[in-house]
Amino acid sequence: MTSIISFLINGEVFAFDTLKVRNILEFDKVTWVPNTKKYLLGVINLHGNIIPIADLRMMMGTENAEIGQDTAIIVVSDDDKTDSLIGLVVDGVKEVFDLDEASLKESVINGNTGLVHTFTGSIFKNDEFIHIIDLSEVVQEIEK
Amino acid sequence: MIDKFKAKFVEESNDNVHDLEEALLLLEKDTGNKEIVERIFRAMHTLKGGGAMFGFNQLSEFTHHLETVFDLVRNNKLEITDDIISLTFESIDHIKHMLEVGDVDDEEELENQQSFIQRVQRVANLEGAVVPKTPVAKEEAVKDDGSKTYLIDIKPNEEILRNGTNPFYLLDDLHAMGTAKVVAYHEKVPVLSSFNPISNYCQWQVVLNTSESVNDIKDVFIFVEDECDIAINEIGAGNLLTSTELVNKIDEAARHQKPLVKDELAGLAVSAGDSETKKDGKKKVQLKEHKISSIRVNSSKIDELVNLVSELVTIQAQLNLFAENDGNPAVLALAENIQKLSRQLRDNAFSISLIPLQSELMRFQRLVRDLSKELQKDIDFVIEGGDIELDKNIIEHLTDPLLHIIRNAVDHGIELPDERISNGKSPKGTILFKAYYSGASVIVKVMDDGKGIDPEFIRNKAISKGLIDSSTELSRKEIFELVFLSGFSTKDEVTDVSGRGVGMDVVKKKIGEIRGEVSLDSEIGKGTTLTLELPMTLSIIDGLLVRVFNNQYVIPIANIEKIYAIDSVSFGKTFNHVVNIDNEQYPFIDLRETFETELVNKGTEQLILVKYEDRRVGLLVDQVIGEFQTVVKPMGRFLKKQENISGASIMGDGTIAMVIDTNRLIHNNATKKYRTKN
């Protein structure tokens, strides 16, 4: 049984494996870094470490993503090293719950809007679909 | 648990091996030095003992044979020859290998090992046949070899056998430590009818001559302390067992079952010879052990400490800011004290992460030695400034480039002895390794007095490789710079030693990674000098804080030449990116353009002239804020591609300022322009 954390991007619900998540932060001032990809918003100071921030919404194909009251940063690390910490901007964090793997369905993806194309799977919960994002693909894309 | 001990053993053994190598290098220069032989012997002995204890049996066996050789040397039965030293060096490499892999059962490997052991044994046996070089000490004349003679009383209690202890093993161990004579006392053995086979009725006295310390002797009894009464008494220096009087006394004691008394034997020792009292001073030197003046700490702990201190420095700056705004004198005083303390703490923490170059130099010494033997060159490797300290991360990055540089000096630089003589040089070449502080940097030079490099040769080669155009005019310095271009290797044929096509370009890249610079200079017939300029530490820099658009950036002060207000300079009209200062033209880079931000000229911009190789390049910024000492933090894995920025600093108010890597920035800018031209 894995536990996952769900969040909102452009009205849709997505989720990550909670084991990869280190922090959840309110969106605050981000120091912009020149000569980087558009979705890399910059860096923040988290407990004395410099953490890059990527706008996951832009990566998922949302244009003109705005910063609102619920906008949050989920700090994740794919290999548990401080060097690989990265903050991902989402529209809002929803909840943490246990995932029943049996209920996992194959994600149906139509179109090619964003930079993230593969999902671990989707589940149907409380009348909505939650798509579980494969973090390694996100990380690979940012590292490219 | 055992694995942990094993790891510890390997770690310690590596130290021992290191010590062994160091001693061996010394011995090579001073083959008669008994102290060094002693040191080597000791290191081997430790390896042997530890190896057996932690399951490195093959290592232990192998070291045993090697130890035998040095035991012979120690006892003046064997003279140190080049062969022995070379063999020992090879053996050390083998020991390293064994420490790495542990016991093996691969047949090929075993065979290899066996043949190695045979070679070692050959050396030992060979000399056994040769007449000892020093005459055998005459009876009565006590030889002073730094050893001592002890009287050891072993009185096991009756129960000792029940624990599975075999007292004979203890005696065997004592025999292994030197020469020993044992007297067994068996008076207490009862008549057969009341004899209990699992009880012990015997006790022993041992007269032992050994160069081991009392503690080492005690170690033999470490597991039987509770079941035995042990008394170890020194009866004199030197090997008293060569005295017939003493031997007679021992025999007599055995015959009459009358225990030996320490004082009597000690009396004998005094009369045995007065020579040793005179040599007391020398003996002390030989027995001197290395004092432990340092402790072993996991390097990740040090990294963590340095990180924490960096954070503390940041927070302390915040506190200062707060205290100033608050204006409360008590708070101000507190903040000031904390500032003082944290500064001291910072200096301390950083000095902990500094290690002397010395630690790596031995590898280089070894390299020069092995290579010069292989290439039949005669080379002296001279070290100056081995005590210079550098950040451990820098030293880690430095080893490979330096190995390469030194390899080059041996392979390509120094000529063969014949060639040197015909050129009027001494047949023995010299490679000088020199390190010294220069401001906040450390300069490392590797100088050889070999044949040198012809600049014209480099030029032609670069032309033939298509690296430069044949019409290009280059200064001497620029020509030598060509060597660092990728794909440039001056030796035509690839040798086994160096020159596999990768060469100085890799060196430059590696040194660049630790914010160092490398340059080369050479004179034909006189030799070649490679100079490395390195920062002392990677994580703290003096920087100039500037503003470009909305962001703050730090430019390392070390690179800055001068700062000009925009109205004191005039921009060239014909070219976009040239500026005239004091009747000189300099290229400049508008950082707002490079960083692709809004470009609004307000007339308050400032131009910072920075050094780039041997040129000056201007950087245009919106505002110069001031000078700061900052802790540079890495940007993490995802921003590695951003080459213009080498890291980030957290300012007193918690905001982030990015540290500009001016060398990369200017380099990238130049290549970019070049590309657009094409």
Give the averaged pLDDT of chain B, no decimals.
78
Strand content of chain B: 15-25%
Low-confidence stretches of chain A: none
Helix content estimate of chain B:
40-55%
CATH class descriptor name of chain A? Mainly Beta
Gyration radius from CA atoms of chain B, angstroms: 35 Å
The helix/strand class of chain A is mainly beta
Regarding quaternary structure, what we see is: heterodimer
The total strand number of chain A stands at: 10
What's the topology here?
The complex is a heterodimer of chains A (144) and B (678).
Chain A: E1 2-9, E2 12-17, E3 21-26, E4 40-46, E5 49-55, H1 56-59, E6 72-76, E7 86-90, E8 92-99, E9 119-125, E10 128-133, H2 135-143
Parallel strand pairs in A: 2-10, 5-7
Antiparallel strand pairs in A: 1-2, 1-8, 3-6, 4-5, 6-7, 9-10
Chain B: H1 2-29, H2 34-53, H3 57-74, H4 82-101, H5 107-129, E1 148-156, H6 167-177, E2 178-185, E3 203-210, H7 214-220, E4 228-237, H8 244-256, H9 262-272, H10 275-278, H11 280-287, H12 299-326, H13 329-352, E5 354-356, H14 358-374, E6 379-384, E7 389-391, H15 392-413, H16 417-422, E8 429-438, E9 441-448, H17 455-464, H18 476-481, H19 504-513, E10 517-523, E11 527-535, E12 540-548, E13 551-556, E14 560-565, E15 570-571, E16 578-581, E17 584-590, H20 591-594, E18 606-612, E19 615-621, E20 623-631, E21 645-650, E22 656-660, H21 662-677
Parallel strand pairs in B: 6-8, 13-22, 17-19
Antiparallel strand pairs in B: 1-3, 1-4, 2-3, 5-7, 8-9, 9-11, 10-11, 12-13, 12-20, 14-18, 15-16, 16-17, 18-19, 21-22
